[in-house]
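Quick one:
INPUT:
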């Protein structure tokens, strides 16, 4: 399976967002995610929507258990992304909108 790195990062991010908001992600990964958020308006917006959802519902919608090896892989992906992007964005990328099952 070959995907563009951006798509992998953005899609995986949606899997991690509840852990991120709960503050249970490892600090090194939080830092990598925040680097990604700084250069990805789609993920920033998704985070904002999720925060509003939590305010309204008073709870996180889903909790996921993320294995350590996935966290390591994601940290590398986010770091690579941050290095590649340097803040540049494409207008016509394919943003999934909602995480697919
Ligand atoms: Zn993103």
């Amino acid at each position: 399976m070959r995907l563009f790195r951006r798509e992998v990062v953005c899609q995986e991010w949606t899997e991690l967002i509840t852990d991120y908001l709960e503050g249970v992600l490892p600090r090194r990964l939080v830092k990598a995610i925040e680097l990604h958020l700084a250069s990805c308006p789609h993920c920033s917006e998704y985070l904002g929507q999720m925060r509003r959802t939590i305010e309204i519902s008073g709870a996180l919608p889903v909790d996921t258990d993320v294995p350590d090896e996935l966290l390591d892989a994601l940290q590398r992906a986010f770091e690579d992304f941050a290095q590649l992007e340097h803040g540049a964005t494409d207008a016509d990328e394919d943003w999934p909108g909602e995480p697919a099952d």
